[in-house]
Predict the 3D structure of the following.
Amino acid sequence: MSYYFTLNYPKNLKPCSVNELLRKLLIPRKWRHYLRCEQKVLINGSYLYFNRLINPGDKIELFLEHVESGQKKYPENGQLPDVVFEDEDLLIINKPAGQKTHPNSNETNTALNDCATYLKHTPFIVHRLDMLTSGLLLVAKNPAVVPILNRELTTKAFHREYLALVDNSKTLQDSGMIDLPISRDPLDQRKRMIKSGGLKSITHYQILKRYDDQTALIKVILETGRTHQIRVHLAAIGSPIIGDPLYNPQGDSNELLHLTAYQMSLIKPFSLEQIEIKLPEEKVLLLKK
């Protein structure tokens, strides 16, 4: 399947070569090869050698002919997602707590099933949220933007922030970094644990509001992205998330996990435009506590 993208080189940037621009756009090396060999990148309507300069205001057109899907089909289930942002390539939804990101086997009640229902075609997964975590989830509408977004995740150009309500916050510093390796818990396949020799895991946090001697609202930023990382790290320093059934077993078992992905920023694929999406305050349920 063919895909077409166009952009105007920003007037506030210095001239750069065609090759430099394609690298800035995080276009995979294989695609850059096809664009050069097939002359499918046009500058102001004409092909330029990759060492030639692009100037501010120039129109760039990209014709991609070798995009592989490799994505399984997600059945539509009739449920519509809570859409927070949408353009021609991206869809960002507000995933509710308790819903899986993607299906296993024949499941049809996951966030990606909802997205398939809304889009009328199969979406493409970019990242995941724990089933118990609510908030912003980004999916791709087409396979052409998937490798771009994957590289943004790797290079940290794709930035996410979370809000959490934590217990036992009296001794919690106003801000800090948690640098503790995470591994699987051999006694419980659902859980992760702090263990020497585990995967390097770094979490940054900042207290936004203290409600009492026990409860605080904190902002959390991930430097790495391990399964259950925020939950494991906060529990490890003695301030587990309220409503966490795995890592805060002393809490109320009927309460939802108070962890929300509330903000994300990224570079719009095949552009140099940064976009920032924030969950509306009225949809951040934990702020109402």
Q: What stands out?
A: Helices lie at 18-24, 29-37, 111-119, 146-155, 229-236. The longest strand covers residues 202-210. Residues 181 and 200 are 5 Å apart (CA to CA). The domain at 161-261 is CATH 3.30.2350.10 (Pseudouridine synthase).
